[in-house]
């Protein structure tokens, strides 16, 4: 068990380091999808800024709730990094806000306005005015349990994004 945990930790760190060294290009998600879960960020201000941006661009808002400690959060981020079409669709239809949940900052006040989160990552879809439209347990977007690769299913994630885009 410890060996598996260390292996996953090392892979996660190597992925973060290798990604940081790569040059930016148009196939990469925008900085919104690329940002990390930061305990120092003010989630309330970030959501207000997203509402302003969404109103101007006529996009929906996607709140991505999780933390840097969360392997499944990294797996979801990796899905967008590895699939240009998925990342482009997300960028075209959503303003993304990452909301940190960690021992440093649980963001309890802002998250108390939304349905209870059972696991991470968790996604909330808001309209351009900040009204909650949907609460999504991302466990439902994962590959089946017997699938050889652990992670989120591209088709399921795409269908979710399409359903809630407008």
Q: Which terms summarize this structure?
A:
Glutaredoxin, globular, single chain, alpha+beta
Helix content: 40-55%
The arrangement of helices and strands along the chain is HHHEHHEHEEH
Total DSSP helices: 7
Globally, the shape reads globular
CATH architecture: 3-Layer(aba) Sandwich
* Low-pLDDT segments: 4-31
Major sheet strand order: 2-1-3-4
Strand-residue proportion: 15-25%
CATH superfamily: Glutaredoxin
Q: Helix/strand-derived class? A: alpha+beta
CATH topology: Glutaredoxin
- Average pLDDT, rounded to a whole number, is 86
Describe the largest sheet. Answer: 4 strands, mixed
How would you explain this protein's 3D organization?
With 166 residues, the protein is α+β, with helices and mostly antiparallel strands. The chain has a single domain (37-165), classed as Glutaredoxin, CATH 3.40.30.10. The protein is 46% helix and 15% strand. The chain has helices at residues 2-21, 31-34, 43-57, 71-82, 84-93, 108-111, 154-165, and strands at 60-66, 94-100, 122-126, 132-137. The protein has a four-stranded mixed sheet. Helix 4 (71-82) packs across helix 5 and helix 5 (84-93) packs parallel to helix 7 (154-165).
């Amino acid at each position: 068990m410890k060996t598996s945990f260390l292996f996953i930790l090392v892979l996660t760190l190597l992925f973060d380091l290798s990604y940081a060294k790569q040059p930016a290009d148009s196939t990469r998600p925008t900085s919104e999808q690329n940002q990390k879960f930061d305990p120092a960020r003010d989630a309330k201000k970030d959501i207000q800024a997203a509402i302003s941006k969404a109103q101007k661009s006529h996009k929906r808002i996607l709140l991505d709730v999780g933390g840097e400690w969360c392997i499944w959060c990294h797996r979801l981020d990796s899905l967008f990094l590895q699939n240009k079409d998925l990342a482009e669709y997300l960028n075209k239809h959503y303003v993304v806000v990452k909301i940190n949940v960690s021992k440093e900052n649980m963001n309890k006040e802002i998250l108390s306005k939304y349905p209870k989160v059972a696991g991470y990552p968790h996604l909330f879809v808001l309209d351009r005015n900040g009204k909650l439209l949907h609460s999504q347990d991302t466990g439902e977007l994962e590959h089946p349990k017997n699938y050889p690769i652990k992670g989120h299913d591209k088709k399921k994630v795409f269908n979710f994004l399409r359903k809630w885009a407008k």
